[in-house]
Amino acid sequence: NSEGGLYVCMNTFLAFGREHVERHFRKTGQSVYMHLKRHVREKVRGASGGALPKRRNSKIFLDLDTDDDLNSDDYEYEDEAKLVIFPDHYEIALPNIEELPALVTIACDAVLSSKSPYRKQDPDTWENELPVSKYASNLTQLDNGVRIPPSGWKCARCDLRENLWLNLTDGSILCGKWFFDSSGGNGHALEHYRDMGYPLAVKLGTITPDGADVYSFQEEEPVLDPHLAKHLAHFGIDMLHMHGTENGLRDNDIKPRVSEWEVIQESGTKLKPMYGPGYTGLKNLGNSCYLSSVMQAIFSIPEFQRAYVGNLPRIFDYSPLDPTQDFNTQMTKLGHGLLSGQYSKPPVKSEIIEQVMKEENKPQQNGISPRMFKAFVSKSHPEFSSNRQQDAQEFFLHLVNLVERNRIGSENPSDVFRFLVEERIQCCQTRKVRYTERVDYLMQLPVAMEAATNKDELIAYELTRREAEANRRPLPELVRAKIPFSACLQAFSEPENVDDFWSSALQAKSAGVKTSRFASFPEYLVVQIKKFTFGLDWVPKKFDVSIDMPDLLDINHLRARGLQPGEEELPDISPPIVIPDDSKDRLMNQLIDPSDIDESSVMQLAEMGFPLEACRKAVYFTGNMGAEVAFNWIIVHMEEPDFAEPLTMPGYGGAASAGASVFGATGLDNQPPEEIVAIITSMGFQRNQAVQALRATNHNLERALDWIFSHPEFEEDSDFVIEMENNANANIISEAKPEGPRVKDGSGTYELFAFISHMGTSTMSGHYVCHIKKEGRWVIYNDHKVCASERPPKDLGYMYFYRRIPS
User: Fold this and answer.
1) Which residues are annotated as a binding site?
2) Which uninterrupted H or E stretch holds 101?
3) How far is CA 777 from CA 268, 280, 546, 597, in A?
4) How many whole angstroms separate alpha carbon 139 and alpha carbon 414?
5) Catalytic residue (choose from 231, 398, 767, 771)
6) Which SMART domains match (predicted)?
7) Beta bridge partners of 655
8) Per-residue model confidence as pLDDT tens digits over 61-96
9) What angle do CA 103, 107, 113 make, to 5 degrees?
10) Cis peptide bond prior to 594, omega within 30° of 0
11) pTM exceeds 0.70 for this model
12) Catalytic site includes residue 428
């Protein structure tokens, strides 16, 4: 539909706009393109002034959606196709059987008749249809009094807290299969089925008002359970039927809290449309507003603008042959669309006069469609790849992860969000402490409901509401809890209890408390208000509260102070390994000889990306019981400072290093294991590049691959590599601690420049809107509509973006 149309390369079948097709021709030498253009014209009027009678339009042959903003009664479409030969731009109209070879004609027909990859699908076909389990209708459920809490689950046999499945017959919570659904597990759910024969289980954490992941052990496949709500209610989980409505509408089809929708979208106010660079909206693809809101906020940050849009020529020139599968290309394309102003132009005077004459208000802001971007960033993600509503905070972290993994050289715009958190854990019995640091990208603030300043109004409203519901009268006007921001900040800084705390001073479990402080302050602080939770009855709840978020924020008092005088540190002793009951009889009474370590289990773990020395220790300390048990040891110990250090055994003469026992290397040699070098070189990288990457990352395979991708400027230096490989003291280089996470520390004083608001009762439904402060005024981004904000609802936001004020 654009003025220049679309150019389809007849070799790769990639499509380019007029401003980019020349670049593709220069880069690839491909000279034959099919030019596609859809013309939109006003219909010819009849003698009476009305449109001519409708007839089949033979001029439309492209499988494209028509513009919803144009009235089909007043406009008609005409598609045009022709071959263009570069560099002379020689044109051949299509169809042209006489002049074109048969193979070219066949290829052109195939392109013109192909289906659009973005053709709107019926919602019922968004996902593959699962079979209904034959056990669902007559499933036996034991009346054993089991009630499942809304959180805090763990496997009944091995204490794992992820990939957990609830058996729908007896309510047992057990871990799933080893790396089933990309998560670890010891297969205890399957073992329970083999022991008891109970066929159906539901995965905890996937239960939503629309259903859940149900697996049939007997049928050996994922299934549908039409009676899932009843089966879950048997164990006290009644969230599904709590969301039903008499008219059959889902929660995202209705607006249960009209006032919230009106306030956040500034309904009832005539908002002035905004046009030009930075004022371009994004079309809603069907529950894609979470993505649109996050991307609008992201590309309002100068570091992201410079990293992508500022590097557009270089990124486009050096993009891979298939740019649709390149993250940096797609980020740059989206950023250019939002910031260039090419897709946000005000209507010309003649169009405004025409609208007034026709007494119509045709939308002028079309926005851009993020279909290709969404398809790429959500690829292989079970939630973001669906057409369901998602959590904007989860997508923000997902995007940061993609930016980290696809950074351009040493430039990483997500550095502006990264900060270090100091966690102080204290044993309540011995009063000893431990300090650790972790990386984070956003600050999560709890909602301090107990600090509401209008408690009397809330109590009166609740009584009136219940009375109105009982008597079937109209509900009273909503009263929203007013929470001071200072109370939320205070709740964030207060100590919290640590579940299952193991005190190294007592060598036993004890009560522990944890406090968190900022070890560094980020350039841009993202604050999430934790509005979403679960009630005791499993019903998801949203705190509909008003928080007086400040325009200027000072959190310098939350700066970490480290170990204080008079504090005594907890001993650096690891907790004992928890061995599954059914495996204890396989555990030897004494540790095995280091030379007898099962190297197949070691390599299986190393291929997952863990340091080789850590894998050897994991297999050793779990008595050669296999990779699954050793993996659990790694999860428990991976935060320890000596996690990747060589295995040291009293009585075995010091270090039992992987290099010495497996590859015949000396204890002082830093030569990476040949097996890991071979894995990297099999991917097409040079040997010296693999060696240097492994040395720089302490032989960690996953980190080494990240190192290679983040050092495109690496040049082959064979003399250096040979010298390093022959240097018996090369381990001196590896002994230096790996470079820590890059942070941009500074003052903890900030000013608010953007916030994302959510309307609806849960993150799985509703709508997102973004407000951004630009050129001294607030602007509302509501999908494709971009307008000057009159009353920005800063007190109702979900995510807030602050920028540091230079000190």
Assistant:
1) 155, 158, 175, 188
2) none
3) 20, 16, 22, 66
4) 50
5) 767
6) UBA, ZnF_UBP
7) 648
8) 566 655 544 445 566 778 889 999 999 999 998 887
9) 140
10) no
11) no
12) no
